[in-house]
């Protein structure tokens, strides 16, 4: 069969509904000034779907630094990959500051989070090594595992009995291959908001002799002392062998980094193909990231206000009888019972009638007949935003439970 003919009739599990969902449920356009209140399809909406945790995306100080750096350097400088002609003292400064902040020997600056995480995993493990990873690890980690040509074992999410079972299998295998074990998990799981069981995982290190890789995309900047992340919050930062953080969440920009022992970072600098063969991060992004890191370190009120909003939202939802799962981060899921058709009407009602824009997650990410509304509180939300949202969620839940969204009917006012 011709390749294009095949994909014409099979758009994949997400793309299969593209004709109906594009521009509304998928690839929606949020417009206006970045913040808690924006515009969707020419209507004002209260936005709970941006990972702009600390509100830095539209902070006046940040915007000035970004603009000044763009005016001074342009977007081209430096040209070339860092190994060849794209190295600057500012790239090195950012790495040094990140390493110091994360209490690691060294750090390596990466162009993108997804690409960087995937590439770091591929570089670190050989075909003789075995990877043991949490079943709910992010797609970038899964793709990194796919690039790994050796064996891998997956343990049930945050299940330490399942984890040790996989460790035993991995250790038995490495005794034959002569390789090592890399354990991978997340600091904060971005869908349900629960933290990885880092402290419990670390307790197995002595017996099984593995290395620990933690993707802390949602923890960096939002959890721990001064935003040092989930490892710091759980008191095991020193036991994380490879710490991965992204700029796309709390820093509200582009880029990422990996922090570890000096010899590990030196190895990655010369062996991460995604960086060796890619253009260096443009100077305005690097200068902007330095300013963002400074604000994370020196303005604890940003994190304090983030948690004030998150606690108010989570406690309010719980008091109103909503199921928010096991979240122990600022990520706030709301679980409802309903079909895909009902999920469509819940989303339409929230957006069109109540002016609330949040992400909706359905099967296969969650079980069938489960609707997950994912809320991302930020430091620029207000307590009034929280109050209004809970009030609207309560009204929509009543409609859902009354069967008003059942069947294939689309809400008449949409």
Structure overview:
By secondary structure, the chain is an alpha/beta fold. It has 2 domains: 3-53 and 300-401, Aspartate Aminotransferase, domain 1; 60-298, 3-Layer(aba) Sandwich (Aspartate Aminotransferase, domain 2). The protein is 43% helix and 15% strand. The chain contains 17 helices and 14 strands. A 7-stranded mixed sheet has the order 4-10-9-8-7-5-6. It has a 4-stranded mixed sheet with strand order 1-2-3-12. A hairpin with a 2-residue loop joins strand 2 (37-40) and strand 3 (43-47). It is globular, with a radius of gyration of 22 Å.
For the sheet with most strands, the description reads: 7 strands, mixed
Q: Give the integer mean of the pLDDT values.
A: 93
The overall strand count is 14
Radius of gyration, taken over Cα atoms and rounded to an integer in Å: 22 Å
* Order of strands in the sheet with most strands: 4-10-9-8-7-5-6
Low-confidence stretches: none
Oligomer: single chain
Instruction: From the 3D structure, determine the CATH topology of the largest domain.
Output: Aspartate Aminotransferase, domain 2
CATH architecture tag of the largest domain: 3-Layer(aba) Sandwich
Compact description:
The protein has 17 helices and 14 strands. With 414 residues, it is of the alpha/beta class.
């Amino acid at each position: 069969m011709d390749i294009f003919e095949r994909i014409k009739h099979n758009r994949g599990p997400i793309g299969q509904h593209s004709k109906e969902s594009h521009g509304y449920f998928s690839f929606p356009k949020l417009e206006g000034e970045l913040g808690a209140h924006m515009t969707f399809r020419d209507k004002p909406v209260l936005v709970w779907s941006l990972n702009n945790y600390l509100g830095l995306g539209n902070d006046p100080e940040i915007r000035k630094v970004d603009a000044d750096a763009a005016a001074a350097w342009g977007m081209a400088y430096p040209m070339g990959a860092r190994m060849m002609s794209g190295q600057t003292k500012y790239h090195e400064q950012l790495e040094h500051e990140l390493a110091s902040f994360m209490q690691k020997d060294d750090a390596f600056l990466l162009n993108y989070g997804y690409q960087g995480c995937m590439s770091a995993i591929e570089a670190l493990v050989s075909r003789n090594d075995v990877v043991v990873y949490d079943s709910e690890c992010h797609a970038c980690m899964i793709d990194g595992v796919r690039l790994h040509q050796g064996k891998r074992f997956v343990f049930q999410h945050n299940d330490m009995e399942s984890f040790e079972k996989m460790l035993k299998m991995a250790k038995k295998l490495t005794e034959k291959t002569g390789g090592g074990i890399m354990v991978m998990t997340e600091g904060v799981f971005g869908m349900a908001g629960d933290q990885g069981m880092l402290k419990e995982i670390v307790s197995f290190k002595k017996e099984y002799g593995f290395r620990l890789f933690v993707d802390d995309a949602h923890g960096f900047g939002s959890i721990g002392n001064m935003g040092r992340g989930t490892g710091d919050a759980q008191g095991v930062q020193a036991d994380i062998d490879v710490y991965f953080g992204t700029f796309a969440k709390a820093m509200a920009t582009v880029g990422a980094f990996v922090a570890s022992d000096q010899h590990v970072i030196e190895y990655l600098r010369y062996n991460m193909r995604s960086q060796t063969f890619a253009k260096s991060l443009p100077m305005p992004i690097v200068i902007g990231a330095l300013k963002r890191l400074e604000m994370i370190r020196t303005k604890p009120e940003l994190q304090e206000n983030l948690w004030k909003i998150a606690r108010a939202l989570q406690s309010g939802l719980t008091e109103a009888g909503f199921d928010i799962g096991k979240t122990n981060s600022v990520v706030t899921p709301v679980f409802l019972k309903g079909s895909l058709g009902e999920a469509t009407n819940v989303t339409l009602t929230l957006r069109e009638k109540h002016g609330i824009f949040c992400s909706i997650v359905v099967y296969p990410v969650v079980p069938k007949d489960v609707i997950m509304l994912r809320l991302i509180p930020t430091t620029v939300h207000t307590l009034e935003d929280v109050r209004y949202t809970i009030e609207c969620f309560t009204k929509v839940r009543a409609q859902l439970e009354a069967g008003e969204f059942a069947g294939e009917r689309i809400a008449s006012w949409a």
